[in-house]
Amino acid sequence: MPEAASARATRAVIGDSEFDRDTAVTRRAPGVYDIDLSAGWTIINAVNGGYLLAVLGRALADTLPHPDPFTISAHYLTASHPGPAVVRTQTVRTGRSLSTGQASLYQYDDEGNEVERIRVLASYGDLTTLPDDVRTTATPPAIPPLDQCFGPADAPAPVEGSSAIADRLMLKLDPATLGWALGAPSGKGEMRAWFGLADGRDADPLSLLLAVDALPPTAFELGLKGWVPTVELTVHVRRRPAPGPLRVSITTRNLAGGFLEEDAEVWDTDNHLVAQSRQLARARLT
Amino acid sequence: MPEAASARATRAVIGDSEFDRDTAVTRRAPGVYDIDLSAGWTIINAVNGGYLLAVLGRALADTLPHPDPFTISAHYLTASHPGPAVVRTQTVRTGRSLSTGQASLYQYDDEGNEVERIRVLASYGDLTTLPDDVRTTATPPAIPPLDQCFGPADAPAPVEGSSAIADRLMLKLDPATLGWALGAPSGKGEMRAWFGLADGRDADPLSLLLAVDALPPTAFELGLKGWVPTVELTVHVRRRPAPGPLRVSITTRNLAGGFLEEDAEVWDTDNHLVAQSRQLARARLT
User: Fold this and answer.
1) CB-based contact (8 Å) between B284 and chain A?
2) Which domain holds residue B165?
3) d(CA A66, CA B239)
4) How far, CA to CA in Å, does B34 sit from each of A268, B39, B41, B52, B61?
5) What pLDDT is recorded for position A120?
6) How far apart are CA A122 and CA A1, in angstroms?
7) pLDDT tens digits along A145-203
8) Do the domain assignments include residue B25?
9) Chain A residues 76-135 with CB within 8 Å of chain B
10) Closest CA to A85 of A107, A66, A101, A65
11) Are residues B118 and B176 in the same domain?
12) Into how many domains does chain A fold?
């Protein structure tokens, strides 16, 4: 069998992939879901915030009558760790075209008490029911072809911040936003990359929640180092993504007072803007 | 007394103004606040979403140990009306520099049952404790001087969408984003204005929650008409605003599938970016 055909045959698909298995929640009772948070989505020992949002998003999709997160707002309370967790969901309102829910993810302290990690409000709808109409003229980010972008495997030494999650992502950074990895940050609050799952699973609304929080922090290109913990992250999923790699562009306009925002846009291979997000994060001004 | 001195003497101040009186909540019990929603902040019979967010923001400021909303995310469930309402708050987590809370605003149906209007998650801090550091080079929006911008009183006929709230705002629109009022929308998703309270009360973090949702919808400049109801609105308050009028710039990049986002930036007279917001709203594609 030619290599290309072999690669296609073993490619993971939506519903049967590591991302699907690692975000799967088990309903223990109505509105109560168990999950073992995977160590595979950690970055510098913290569980990635986008992966956690996808876990909460799956529990809400099971709870609410609509399948897709149109807008989901997460406030990150305490750092999550790989291991057992429970998600508790609540239906806030159900409507014809939109329903709203709330969810919290908890882990356990040494005495077995639940400690809340993240609380989420979200409004769900059905993306397949939306008209195909696009009225704006926004264009995809200018980013070189995939084979001219660079990932951790291309670096002479491991790229700072790489961790378990890097093995599960197809992440190829625009060389124009890679200065930080070479010790020469551009000073601009920009980060751009091609994004996919390493096993070839195509994107869906749930994996878009991961895509918006998977690039290195724009703070690196602004000359800062170290962890940039998310305080709040809101994602708008605007359209079902077409198959193939996504382009993700992140912009920061305001690094001030020890905080910064990160605005992400995600574009699919059909040149549709499929998701937008904004997060408020803490920066260490050193 | 010269007219200018008279105007200064009667100018409202933070804490003693119509905005303060109309957002004041009365604590009935811990975490339970009563308010009579004012008819003064309505637009086409709907109570303005930014005014409602300020009401919720005040209740949370009373509940949480920190005074200022750093990031507040609201999901709008049902339309609010002038009249009695109750706000219920909950402390989710308290930390040294940030605390997180939740709040809901309810009104009453014909049988006196509570109907939830809005649910909010917010993380509060103390803006006065933040370092003065600004690392980015974002610049204020290009907008002509205040006396070259236009408000409802300048229009030959009432500007579409004007209502009670117009009397309480000092809102002067950039002529470049005023085409819709003259029947010639620009086709660009932009709206810019000088913003203040009509009684001269200066801005504070609470009134910034109003400022981000007080301009005409960008959808008007994209050629759409009618109401553009907010599904979700998240505001980041980044700095205490300096006295004087604010500049508000709103941008829409993606009007598609019957929804659009509105990104707002609010700049103060010291040229500091004091707030950023993003909302997801429904658009009627006709």
Assistant:
1) no
2) 146-282
3) 38
4) 47, 16, 18, 13, 15
5) 98
6) 46
7) 999 999 877 765 555 555 789 899 999 999 999 999 889 999 999 999 999 999 999 99
8) yes
9) 77-78, 92-93, 98, 100, 102, 116, 119-123, 127, 130-135
10) A107
11) no
12) 2
